[in-house]
Amino acid sequence: MKLSAYGWLCGLVLTCVASAVTAQPTSKNKANAARDAMLAQVPDVPGLPRVLLIGDSISMGYTVKVRELLAGKANVHRPPENSSDSANGLKKLDTWLGAGKWDVIHFNFGLHDLPSPLGWNSNPNAERKYFRRTTRGSRSSRRRLGMPS
Q1: By C-alpha distance, which of 93, 83, 86 is closest to 131?
Q2: What's phi and psi for 108, nearest 5 deg?
Q3: Is this prediction's pTM over 0.70?
Q4: Which CATH fold topology does 43-144 show?
């Protein structure tokens, strides 16, 4: 079967378009790459202070920028997940602290702990007493952090 010049041209154009489409990162790929960068576990540079950022999606959003701003000045780490609210933080704090020593630990649980008059967060954990209790942390975590029990 012979292809006309028009057939060859259409085939060439489709091949080029298909190549361009598959070569372009999609917005989903960009979002996944950004999330991977936020949650990436980075190796320590010996001799620099260790900083741990613990928090919700807001803290995830500034993790990469903080790492860039503190490059060569501090090792900036975060848990490999959205830390959500203070109740989740209390539950997982010992795991996130790991075995290492931290020079700075920054907590930002943000809106996950606030009640909303619009009803978007009907989390009963947002009550003031509960928040106070959860942010005090477990005894073992407090000891490891050098805080009074």
Answers
A1: 86
A2: -150, 90
A3: no
A4: Rossmann fold (3.40.50)
